[in-house]
Amino acid sequence: MSWKSEGCSLPRASLCLLVPPVRLMSAFMWQVVQQRSVLQYDKLADFISLAAEMVPELLSPTQKTQLILGLRARLVLELCRCDGVANLQIIQSQLDKIHTCSAELSSSDQMASSDILKTSYSNFASLVQNMLNVPFEKEFFFQEIFPASYGSAYNQRIHQLMSVFLSRLEELLPIPDLQQTAAWLTETPVSEEIGLHLSEPFALKALLHHHRQLGTLNSVWSSSEEDIILSTLALSLQTAAERFTEPYNQEDDGSEEGTPALEGFEEESSQGLDVTADDWLPKKKEVFIHTPLKEESPRAHPE
Question: What are phi and psi of 104, to 5 degrees?
Fold first, then answer.
């Protein structure tokens, strides 16, 4: 597995908009290993332990053991070299985690080399104890033993195991495309998050500007599309009213009969008479009005 640095000048806030959080964590871990930021190795070991517990297929038992113990042991040695007495509490905590991890794997049937695990922890704990108590032992170790035993070969093995772990994690958690993400968010509104990015748009502006400068977007587009929106907005009130009040065309309906007029109403209207509801109400019929809980006005029906 290899990564290339493109010299990205994006601020961290813009990267958080572009890159998923899990991938940012992976990039952070890889950067820590590349730069040998040993004091950060506990974060790597904690994350690997959590991920491997939830998804054991990420690493084999041997790979998991070597990577976690290798990171924690290297951190302990760095703390001893800086100031072992001042860092005594952190050193003890890391040794306890090494012992717990070794004991768990030794008691399981996952590793055939359970004996070497016990020996590794026992010898390493004794080494640390001697360095903390005898200054001469500490000086001798870091001058003579450390460069050969914890040098390039040791660091290269950590690189290899981290590469395997991060590659497997990438395979487990691929970045979904737009359609898949939209399907997942059908019942999860994100308007508040979008609003936060727009209320402080510096990171978003920097992100868009950076990628525009890369020149990967084609700026040629078609101008032959029908402009429905602007043509609709350009309608005056009178034009819009005329469009929606066009007279009914009987020929368009395909029927021979038009809308039936009330009997006698058209004739009387043509004679210029005042026609009221009384002129066409039913005559000589009893009207029974049902009165519900809420009074309703009786309606008369034409014959």
Answer: -65, -45
By percentage, how much of the chain surpasses pLDDT 90?
Answer: 37
pLDDT level of residue 284 (50, 70, 90 thresholds): very low
**Range among 85-89, 229-233, 240-244, 272-276 with highest mean pLDDT value:** 85-89
